[in-house]
Write a structure and sequence with these properties.
It is built from nine helices and five strands, in the order βααβαβααβαβααα. The chain has 155 residues and is mainly alpha-helical. The protein has a three-stranded parallel β-sheet. The chain has a two-stranded parallel ribbon with strand order 2-3.
């Protein structure tokens, strides 16, 4: 398990919208966000979410020329750790993080890991809830996740 898990705003908001924000805690324990992410989230944070700013503000500003400031701040912070995992859904930010050799997972990856850890019985109910929000994923990815978890229902 990664020693440091850092989350972007969208992951927190999506799990909050479907009433499962505690699932992140059950899968990863304590997570870190930046003050930028806390500001974007705009709600009271559970005690298992800690806030830490990125130290290298110049690096963060450079990243902000390519992605939004919340995403830039978590990537800059992740570079300060050896084994960080980013919880990140935005495709452009994911591609940038991957280029920088930062490990990433997203909302669907968290749900998959929760199933692997027997925290949840099925992934489909959570995916169905997510699809009622502004969350978007291709049908192929959703179908692959259902098959991977032995829940394929010819989606």
């Amino acid at each position: 398990m990664p020693r440091t898990v850092i989350s972007d705003t969208s992951t927190l908001i999506l799990f909050q919208k479907i009433g499962n924000i505690d699932l992140i805690n059950k899968v990863y324990g304590e997570i870190i966000i930046t003050p930028e992410v806390a500001g974007e989230f705009g709600e009271t944070l559970p005690e298992w979410i800690k806030t830490k700013p990125a130290s290298d503000k110049k690096y963060q500003k450079i990243l902000e020329t390519q992605i939004d400031n919340g995403e830039a701040s978590i990537i800059a912070l992740a570079k300060e750790f050896d084994n960080a995992l980013l919880l990140l859904d935005d495709l452009k930010a994911r591609k940038l993080a991957a280029k920088l050799n930062i490990r990433i997972t997203g909302t669907l990856g968290i749900i998959h890991k929760a199933k692997q850890m027997s925290i949840i019985e099925k992934v489909k109910p959570l995916i169905d809830k997510l699809l009622q929000t502004d969350f978007r994923a291709s049908n192929n990815i959703i179908r692959e996740l259902l098959i991977l978890n032995d829940e394929d229902t010819d989606h």
